[in-house]
From TrEMBL, chain A:
It comes from Sphingobacterium bovistauri. Keywords: Cell membrane, Membrane, NAD, Quinone, Translocase, Transmembrane, Transmembrane helix, Transport. This is NADH-quinone oxidoreductase subunit N. It comes from the Bacteria. NDH-1 shuttles electrons from NADH, via FMN and iron-sulfur (Fe-S) centers, to quinones in the respiratory chain. The immediate electron acceptor for the enzyme in this species is believed to be a menaquinone. Couples the redox reaction to proton translocation (for every two electrons transferred, four hydrogen ions are translocated across the cytoplasmic membrane), and thus conserves the redox energy in a proton gradient. Residues 138-418 form the NADH:quinone oxidoreductase/Mrp antiporter transmembrane domain. Belongs to the complex I subunit 2 family. NDH-1 is composed of 14 different subunits. Subunits NuoA, H, J, K, L, M, N constitute the membrane sector of the complex. InterPro entries: NADH-Q_OxRdtase_suN/2, NADH_UbQ_OxRdtase, ND/Mrp_TM. The keyword Transmembrane applies.
From TrEMBL, chain B:
It is an enzyme of class 7 (translocase). It comes from Sphingobacterium bovistauri. Its EC number is 7.1.1.-. The chain crosses the membrane at residues 6-23, 30-49, 61-85. This is NADH-quinone oxidoreductase subunit K.
Length: 497, 101
């Protein structure tokens, strides 16, 4: 106790010195508080006040995050790591979060369901804070807190509106599955802490402890730990929640869930993977095998099950599971190349998914359905919407001339480099399965233009809505961006240099 | 003499009881209790291991944070289960299957 008293001033000094590194997150925290206060007091005077505060908070956090570019720092006793990787990913996350906020605002603008929309913005900001922290830490404590922050905010987002039975069911499945995964992960982390006595997974003691740990117990601990991360990323076998939740949740919330939290989790996993697979001991091999097998099965199951879906949100859920498998492959490929391959794929995936869910939202509000067969013959009525839909489908499959193709090309190249370098057969299987599932995905993405343009359907009565214009414009801009990035990938790649 | 092994055995037992409660799912609230047991098993582990980490007290700090987070997620879980009950008049997860393939 005595030595803590003497150390306390220096500890406090270091905490105070670290606060400037935290400014991008502080902006989100202040916006979170501001939006709660605005919901309580200002929304009666001006309906949009909490929305505007949220937008300002996200934009200022984006600006503050970009200012940290090029100055690698670490604060709070090494818990917070600010490097370029973290700055790029936080840039992508905040931009995607901004679009999601606009989607949600537009979707619920004219709905009266007796609940205050302002609360949703503050929850979104809290989720953004958690995801930001995930990208800039190598400490298990901070990583766990961040994962739980994101999870709890996501449960509330799915269940908050509960307009119908399905939404409550989705939120219950989400909260039960998510809490169990978090509990299992916590147990795994406690075992890892027991082996190593240190919570920073890049530290020397941590690696040393992993090398000396008994093999069976270590395998159990790693499996438990990957349960939690696997739940956030929804890779097989922890994917079972995602189709139900994506189908049940309101469409703009699905757009958020399928993109933003995944970026944070994949960045954390990328740091972990890079650090742990560099040695030649048992645990490195185990991590490589676990991730490769998860990637292969995720790509196969996601894309194969997507083939027999008739609900487009459910189909996109399986498609995003398939893409998670591909993201894991990009993560393995990250070993061989600069982080820009992974970042490029993440950025492109985010753009494509946000655009698709934006268009699904627009169509849902116009025709009141998310079933594929209700899209029959709609190509004539909504030519631009479905042309962009088709373009996004092409990009999601990974065909030229879209950004999806460039992203997949980079990933395949880096995996092939790795394979030539050390002839590990897992790399070869990854390559084959990656190519194969891209072909499989062609069959379900092309269902959309098949129904819209080639099948004849009755003229559909368009529901009167006022709130689709902005979502429609954003989705179209994002759709054209995928085309632009496919033709000029350097626009993004030079940014990630 | 109570050693580290005793703590680990107890925590492993609690974890298994929690996992069984979750898997046997009859009632959503029982599942939440199971989750709580699993988290407490992990917390016990952290505190027990922290005996050997006298410099940073990482385990004890982690235990504190884990307690707070568990409370938060259980609060959200209960609110959501209440919502489910309003719509379905049951909280047995086996009977709530509108969303499936």
């Amino acid at each position: 106790m005595q030595d803590i008293n003497t150390q306390l001033p220096s500890i406090l000094d270091q905490v105070i010195q670290s606060i400037p590194f935290f400014k991008a997150e502080l902006a989100l925290i202040f916006a979170f508080l501001g939006s709660i206060i605005a919901t309580l007091f200002l929304d009666k005077l001006w309906k949009q006040s909490s929305f505007i505060i949220t937008l300002i908070g996200i934009v200022s956090s984006f600006v503050l995050a970009t200012q940290q570019f090029g100055q690698p720092q670490s604060g709070f006793f090494g818990m917070l790591i600010i490097d370029n990787f973290s700055v790029y990913s936080r840039g992508i996350i905040l931009a995607a979060l901004l679009i999601c906020v606009v989607f949600i605002q537009q979707h619920f603008q004219y709905k009266t369901f007796g609940k205050n929309l302002g609360d949703v913005y503050s929850i979104l900001l809290a989720a953004g804070l958690g995801i930001n922290l995930l990208t800039s830490t190598t400490n298990w404590l901070l990583a766990f807190i961040a994962i739980e922050t994101v999870s709890i905010s996501s449960y509330i987002l799915v269940g908050y509106f509960s307009e119908n039975k399905r939404q409550t069911e989705a939120s219950m499945k989400y909260v039960l599955f998510g809490s169990v995964s978090a509990a299992v992960m916590l147990y795994g982390l406690s075992l890892l802490y027991g082996f190593t006595g240190n919570l920073d997974f890049t530290s020397f003691e941590h690696i040393q402890g992993l090398i000396e740990a008994p093999k069976i117990l270590l395998s159990v601990a790693l499996l438990f730990m990957f349960t939690g991360l696997g739940f956030k990323l929804s890779f097989v076998p922890f994917h079972v929640w995602s189709p139900d939740v994506y189908e049940g949740a309101p469409t703009p919330v699905t757009a958020f869930l399928s993109t933003v939290p995944k970026i944070g989790a994949i960045i954390l996993l990328a740091r972990l993977f890079e650090e742990w697979t560099s040695s030649s001991f048992y645990f490195s091999e185990l991590v490589l095998i676990l991730i490769s097998v998860a990637s292969i099965t995720t790509m196969l199951i996601g894309n194969l099950v997507a083939l027999r879906q008739s609900n487009i949100k459910r189909m996109m859920a399986y498609s995003s599971i398939g893409h998670t498998g591909f993201l894991l492959m990009a993560l393995v490929g990250n070993l061989a190349s600069e982080p820009q391959v992974l970042l490029f794929y993440i950025a492109v995936y985010t753009i494509m998914n946000l655009a698709v869910f934006g268009l699904i939202d627009v169509m849902e509000q116009k025709i009141g359905s998310v079933q594929l067969e209700n899209y029959q013959g709609l190509g004539k009525q909504f030519p631009i919407t479905f042309s962009i839909f088709t373009l996004l489908g092409i990009s999601l499959i990974g065909l030229p001339p879209t950004a999806g193709f460039i992203g997949k090309l980079f990933v395949f190249t880096s995996i092939f480099d790795l394979f030539q370098f050390n002839n590990n057969r897992y790399y070869l299987i990854l390559l084959v399965v990656g190519a194969l599932t891209s072909v499989i995905s062609l069959f379900y993405y092309f269902k959309i233009p098949l129904y819209a343009f080639l099948r004849k359907g009755d003229e559909v009565k368009i529901l009167p809505t006022k709130s689709t214009q902005i979502v429609y414009i954003i989705s179209i801009i994002l759709g054209i961006t995928t085309l632009l990035l496919g033709i000029f990938p350097n626009l993004l790649l030079t940014l990630f240099k | 003499m109570i050693t580290l092994t005793h703590f680990l055995v107890v925590s492993a037992c609690i974890f298994c009881i929690g996992l069984y409660t979750v898997i046997a799912k009859r009632n959503a609230i029982m599942i939440l209790i199971g989750i709580e047991l699993m988290i407490n098993a992990a917390i016990l582990n952290f505190v027990a291991f922290s005996k050997y980490d006298k410099t940073n007290y990482g385990g004890q700090v982690f235990a504190l944070f884990a307690i707070v987070l568990a409370a938060a997620s259980v609060a959200v879980g209960l609110a959501i289960i209440l919502n489910v009950y309003r719509h379905y008049k049951t909280i047995n997860p086996d009977n709530i299957t509108d969303l499936r393939d």
